[in-house]
Known about the structure:
The complex is a heterodimer. Chain A has a single domain, classed as MetI-like (MetI-like fold), CATH 1.10.3720. Chain A has helices spanning about 5-35, 55-60, 60-95, 100-110, 115-130, 135-160, 165-170, 175-205, 210-215, 220-230, 235-260, 260-265. In chain A, about 75% of the residues lie in helices and about 0% in strands. In chain A, helix 1 (about 5-35) packs across helix 11. The model of chain A has no long low-confidence stretch (mean pLDDT about 85). Chain B is mainly α. Chain B has a two-stranded antiparallel sheet. Residues about 1-5 of chain B have low confidence and may be disordered.
Amino acid sequence: MRRGLSTRLLGISGKVLVGLILAFIVLPALVVTLAAFNDRAILSFPPAKYSTRWFTRALTYRDFQTGLWNSLVVTAWASTIALVVGTGFAIALKRYAFRFKAGLEGVLLSPLIVPHFTIGLGLLVLATGIGAARGFAVVVLTHVIVVLPFVIRSVYISLQNIDERLELAAASLGARPGRVLGTITLPLLAPGLVSGWLFAAILSFNEFTASLFVTGQATQTLPVAMYGYVREFADPTLAAVSVIYIAVTALALTVANTFLGLGKVLNVEQGR
Amino acid sequence: MTPAIRRRPFLPLFVTPAVLVAVAIVAAMAAILRYSLHAYVPGSLDVGGLTLENFSDLGRPIVLRALRDTVLICFETALITLIVGYPVAYALVRTRSLFLKSVILVTAVTPLFLGEVVRTYAWTVVLGNSGFVNATLRQLGLIERPIQLMFTELGVIIALVHVTLPVMVIMLAAALAHIDRDYERAAQSLGAGPVRAFLTVTLPLSLPGVVAGFTTAFAWTFSAFATPQVIGGGKVGVVSTLVYQLGLSSFNFPVAASLSLAGLVLALGTMWLVRRAARPLEALGGH
């Protein structure tokens, strides 16, 4: 087909536009990286002198150290619990009919729409009522609730890719349900389980709004500690922490992407 | 023999943990409802008798203004995000190069997983008076005094668009990916130019994604807290910052709870209205 000049111009301007929007998306990350390596405490662009002193300060700042440790503990527990809960529910959702199925699904997916500050406030007043406020159990529960929809979705999509006849074949050869689950279903699900767990971990490690409500001084996670810092100080220490965050998240996403294509999880692959 | 899979083995084992989590969610929402209907006792976390006073407290000008501003900011953000996100989603689905596809996908999606605090802080470095934008403009000699972007609604909206863009791109791309390209080819073979084929075929067919993306962006913006709090710096009052102020600074749980509920109803109501308003539009692109 002959392509006219106007069509070509349209194509070029479209590419430029998309390039500009992508630049807008990465701009903050680039700027924050520049700021993190800036030697001076006051922001200036471009930096006159580069150093890694803000990274040193970030890694030795007490609130960030305890925050990081708390975050790792909460993330490990929350993503693992969410994986167990979400996997079981996704299997039941995909394979079985049972009472209140739609209602249960609606409640479990509701954190996608209900604001996190509402969830945080609700769990705070609930925990205050039973005298468990600000404890690790409540923080972990909050994170499980918030990340669960993403785990359910990851596992559900992997289930769609499993050929159920393999399970039927195993069952018809005499394997009991437990054996079918352990030797066929779960191994075939492994990529979905790994990526679901990784997504849950990334989201939990980054969760802030709900955590702000349910954490206390002793249980505050790293994002909450960072929020406390930004309100008190204005030096680039936070830029250094942000750079570490961005690097870790990008790395974890790349790993998740190799186990189960991001495009598939996010449902954005062209069908035909 | 009935295959084992049909007999629902392990159903209780699979569903019981999920039921426990669901119970916690329902209990949390019930706790909010309970607090919203009880009187505030200053200096105590316990509540007094049944009352509707918390809801009439919501009639104060500062609360009404926050509710109105929240809906406006969410609406503007969702609209701008839609306009900015559409070309990216289109490029993501339609580019033939696998490399470009994954570059666009990773670039567009990574911010989704970065927490609000990191992104908001990054934007303060970009928007601040000695930040990136102002420093660049000054060095280019375009401005003499910094443009005030921090602590303004404009600054908040710029950062919020950035926060909601990934989810918008994902939802639009999902809709675009499921459109059969043969429709478009048919229009072009009948003589429609690329612009006309896009406007009369692809765009209408993608409307369900547009509506889904818009409502999700609206909900996400409504949920945002760190961005309006830090970039708005107290100058931009929205529901989330007010709930935080009432709940964690004044420990007035009852009014915080009733404001949360009012906000939730307002958000769901607006999203429902948007979906309804879009129904005739969607019928245009119906299959």
